[in-house]
UniProtKB/TrEMBL annotation:
InterPro entries: 6-hairpin_glycosidase_sf (IPR008928), 6hp_glycosidase-like_sf (IPR012341), DUF4964 (IPR032515), Glutaminase_GtaA (IPR052743), GtaA_central (IPR032514), GtaA_N (IPR033433). Residues 431-789 form the Glutaminase A central domain. Residues 112-361 form the Glutaminase A N-terminal domain. SUPFAM superfamilies: Six-hairpin glycosidases. Residues 28-86 form the DUF4964 domain. Keywords: Signal. The keyword Signal applies. This is Glutaminase. One of its GO terms (molecular function) is catalytic activity.
Length: 793
């Protein structure tokens, strides 16, 4: 056997031998990190699954990997079981304190649900971060839900208490910076402390909120990606705590130990404000659910809230933009917390509608776009079915291709001697695809904030006003509305709500049309450090002229087509014409420059960059036509066609079976993902033979975890693979889709869905020649996984 297979097997072995941690069953697959509370760049909590870790064997982490204290304990007939967090590790061994046993971990586009056995009780922690892009007000709320429910599994009645706390790390990266806190009860002005807070039946629906903030806030500042201003809130109601509801803040070990001993808290708020690492302060709630016969549950909400949220530059000068939710719900943080808390049922209904539609659309896509009638699409109804493997060791798939099954990893390969071509026997491609897009949904939306457009706008009652949307380029460099990060994410928004593309493009247009950018090509981003959307008045942004000019034109046309908004094309025609001029000059023979894949370095004559520019010139022809500039339209269209013909002579390898990575670099190749907009928008610039040639080429260069980005490295991009998949024949498309799902389930990466990974080995983050690892984490580019859904008409 080749050495390759042993490397491949590693993650599976690691998963199997984790001492003492029993593994939950994962549905629809095991992601490298499970989203917990993911609503904004600052409310972004995950738990890794690396090395067999689960919700109660690893700490919750901020997307960047920093540990967050989030602790959950269920007490059943006097015995406490930890189901969330690892706080119990710091307590002395107590016979009445155990770990709950993980049973299942499931996710969909909205929820991550973990179930555990806690003696005779099954506890479910349901983390809910709604993805409802058609609801602009709700989408602008940066808060998330945790619903913990308990159910007796033996038909008997049990005495049950629930405990939950968060620590001050949620509001500060620096562990030596002083944090202030207070507890508030809805409807009461004074902060709560002491026994006067004891719950009566009349206050069982009052909302209790811990508020945490830095003693010295620094508006619009960040420290290692943590906000330096605003408040973190953690809230609940007494709800089902029929007998007793208590709270406490104080030193973590004391508060948790006290709870385990007494099964209740002291109702005292620690008055000694301090840093997160000094006698670690935690902020806790305990619910005594009393005798639970069948089921009971508690709802918690939490998140980081900034008012104002973005600094913005346009012709009116520098503005501090308020979050959009202030326009919907008023300016009070308390009011926001209450509205959000009481909205759970409605949000759940809206979220379920989106999820149902997503499944129906995936099923429809595969009904309409497969070459075989043998496709099942019935699995959606039964996520727990054992749908995975056939028992046979080789076979022929529905495309007539032979594959060989490897019983040690459950996967098959078209070419077992090189492990090229992933073939997953009996796995519905629709299931693989669902696994990918469902995981991506919260990650995409969690990179954005929505704001009002003017300082004063939030209080005005102008209901026709619209928000701005600002994206943080999470993990790669924190830019605002990076054009080549909005571009890969575009398919998600075309599918989910095209208007949101306009909300992100508007500030880019406004800033440049107001004269704040001096160059004749499109700006790379609206600011180098989120949340400062102040542009680049000196024009010294990252130099990607061809990339971004093409992207802006393509996104603008895509938006206009999907939203039927020709007026938008008219509004920005002048700016786009300027960028198109740049493309006419530089697209066919691209100078030495970066493309969006800047980690790969500069390169002259990049085939994929050139074709983006050429397709964008074709798009400009459509735009000119739509606004009535018919002679310009004819000129753009004719040039696009002529450039494409010339491009083929430069770009296609002499073997005539693939395009090259760069002109005149014989035998080189790469993912030609920039032809996707031609198909998406039916532009007709790219002839069929180019699509067919590329589709036939990719399987031959695929590796275990997919097709490398290009010939230079083994790494690839998940977003660009799905863009490419959307340009291919069904058999090749399936290879990409199954490979990404296979990688997600097997990768040894430990953080939120990375878009950059190795197609060989254990599917790690790539390491360069100097041994430096590039970790892309939680990036919104995963919106690109929706490439297939965006093709649905
Ligand atoms: C994921 O990998 C595990 C461990 O090999 C396997 O049991 C499971 O069936 C796989 N699931 C999917 C969806 O590939
Ligand atoms: C998660 O739990 C919620 C209820 O809290 C339910 O509506 C949803 O369907 C569940 N999702 C999965 C994938 O189990
Ligand atoms: C619980 O009760 C139901 C109906 O009363 C019965 O069918 C079931 O077997 C019982 N389960 C256990 C674990 O006793
Ligand atoms: C509760 O007691 C605290 C002092 O412990 C006091 O500051 C607060 O005003 C009281 N709240 C109410 C509602 O009486
Ligand atoms: C945003 O701009 C302000 C004002 O220049 C600055 O103090 C702050 O540090 C900037 N924020 C980031 C994240 O760079
Ligand atoms: C929240 O944070 C901001 C800025 O850090 C602060 O000015 C404000 O008073 C805090 N509290 C509330 C309830 O909004
Ligand atoms: C709450 O009350 C306790 C006991 O009276 C006191 O020690 C503590 O400082 C108070 N906390 C706050 C935030 O005032
Ligand atoms: C009480 O628990 C039940 C059962 O889980 C749940 O349906 C209900 O919403 C809970 N009530 C509150 C106020 O949380
Ligand atoms: C309301 O907002 C819309 C969109 O921003 C704007 O066009 C309109 O002029 C505004 N109306 C008023 C009365 O301010
Ligand atoms: C698109 O907009 C035009 C002009 O507003 C309108 O006439 C047409 O009916 C719209 N088409 C669709 C499909 O909504
Ligand atoms: C770029 O490609 C063009 C067309 O093939 C060629 O004329 C030119 O020399 C190439 N530039 C470089 C630097 O290789
Ligand atoms: C590519 O072309 C070469 C030479 O024409 C040929 O031998 C080879 O089989 C082709 N490869 C594919 C994958 O079609």
């Amino acid at each position: 056997m080749l050495a390759g297979i042993y490397r491949l097997l590693l993650p599976f072995c690691v998963l199997g031998v984790v001492a003492g941690i029993s593994q939950p069953a994962y549905f629809p697959l095991r992601p490298p990190a499970v989203p917990l509370a993911v609503r904004s760049p600052y409310t972004s909590a995950w738990v890794t699954t690396k090395d067999g870790a689960t919700l109660n064997s690893a700490s919750a982490i901020f997307w960047s990997g920093v540990d967050l204290g989030w602790e959950g304990i269920v007490t059943v007939d006097g015995v406490s079981y930890e189901y969330l967090g690892v706080g119990s590790d710091a307590l002395p061994a107590l016979p009445s304190l155990k770990k709950a046993t993980p049973l299942t971990t499931r996710y969909d586009s909205q929820y991550s649900n973990f179930t555990f056995a806690a003696g005779p009780i099954e506890v479910t922690a349901s983390f809910f971060s709604p993805v409802i892009p058609q609801e602009v007000c709700r989408t602008s709320i940066p808060l998330s839900y945790l619903i913990t429910s308990v159910r007796a599994t033996d038909n008997a009645t049990h005495d049950v208490q629930l405990y939950n706390d968060i620590n001050a790390r949620w509001i500060t990266y620096a562990t030596d910076v002083k944090v202030k806190w207070s507890l508030h009860e809805s409807g009461i002005t004074q902060p709560v402390n002491g026994s006067n807070a004891t719950i009566t039946s009349t206050t069982s629906s009052s909302i209790f909120s811990w508020l945490l903030e830095l003693e010295e806030a620094y508006t619009f500042g960040e420290d290692e990606n943590f906000p330096q201003w605003g408040n973190f809130t953690f809230s609940t109601t007494a709800g089902n705590a029929s007998t007793e509801f208590t709270f406490e803040s104080g030193f973590a070990a004391d508060v948790r130990y006290g709870y385990v001993q007494n099964r209740s808290l002291t109702n005292l708020v620690d008055g000694d404000y301090r840093a997160s690492a000094v006698r670690e302060p935690v902020f806790a709630f305990a619910h005594d659910l009393g005798a639970v016969k069948r089921e009971s549950s508690v709802v918690y909400t939490l998140g980081s809230v900034q008012q104002p949220s973005v600094r913005y530059l346009n012709a009116d000068g520098l503005s501090e933009l308020d979050p959009w939710w202030m326009k919907c719900y008023g300016s009070s943080l308390y009011e926001l917390i209450e509205v959000h808390y009481r909205d759970l049922a409605t949000s759940q209904e809206l979220a379920a509608r989106w999820e149902t539609q997503l499944r129906a659309d995936i099923a429809r896509f595969y009904r309409e776009n497969s070459s075989s009638s043998s496709l099942s699409s019935g699995w959606f109804g039964d996520l727990s079915a054992s749908w995975m493997y056939s028992n046979s060791s080789e076979g022929t798939n529905r495309f007539g291709e032979e594959w060989v099954f490897d019983s040690r990893n459950g996967y098959g390969f078209y070419n077992p001697s090189t492990f090229a071509g992933v073939a997953v026997p009996d796995v519905d491609e629709a299931h693989s695809y669902y696994s990918i897009v469902a995981l991506a949904a919260r990650q995409v939306m969690g990179a954005y904030v929505l704001t009002a457009r003017q300082d004063s706008d939030s209080s005005s009652s102008n209901t026709t006003a619209e928000p701005f949307m600002f994206q943080k380029e999470i993990s790669s460099d924190g830019n605002v509305n990076t054009v080549d990060v909005l571009y890969p994410a575009m398919p998600f928004f075309l599918y989910a709500n095209p208007a949101m593309i306009r909300y992100t493009l508007d500030p880019l247009y406004e800033n440049q049309e107001d004269g704040f950018y001096p160059n004749g090509y499109s700006m790379h981003d609206l600011g180098s450090a989120f949340p400062n959307a102040t542009g680049h008045v000196l024009g010294d942004d990252e130099y990607m002229p061809l990339e971004e000019s093409g992207n802006m034109i393509l996104m603008t046309l895509a938006y206009a087509r999907f939203a039927n908004d020709t007026a938008y094309l008219r509004d920005h025609y002048e700016k786009m014409a300027e960028w198109a001029q740049y493309l006419l000059e530089f697209a066919l023979i691209p100078e030495d420059q970066l493309s969006t894949d800047d980690f790969a370095g500069e390169l002259v004559n990049q085939t994929n960059l050139a074709i983006k520019g050429i397709v964008a010139i074709g798009a400009m022809g459509e735009i000119a036509k739509a606004v009535g500039a018919s002679s310009e339209a004819a000129n753009f269209s004719a040039t696009a066609t002529s450039y494409e013909t010339q491009w083929e002579t430069f770009a296609i390898d002499p073997s005539v079976n693939h395009t090259m990575l760069a002109y005149e670099w014989r035998s080189s190749w790469g993912l030609l993902y920039n032809i996707y907009p031609d198909r998406l928008l039916s532009l007709g610039i790219i002839p069929d033979h180019v699509y067919e040639m590329q589709s036939a080429w990719y399987p031959g260069v695929s590796q275990v975890f997919g097709v490398p980005l290009d010939v230079r490295h083994f790494y690839t991009k998940s977003d660009w693979q799905l863009w490419t998949a959307a340009t291919c024949e069904p058999a090749t498309r399936r290879l990409f889709v199954d490979a990404v799902a296979f990688w997600l389930n097997a990768t040894s990466t430990q953080y939120a869905f990375t878009d950059l990974y190795d197609t060989v080995g254990t599917g790690e983050y790539p390491t360069d020649d100097d041994g430096d690892i590039t970790q892309f984490i939680a990036r919104p580019v995963q919106g690109g996984e929706y490439s297939l859904l965006a093709l649905l008409k």
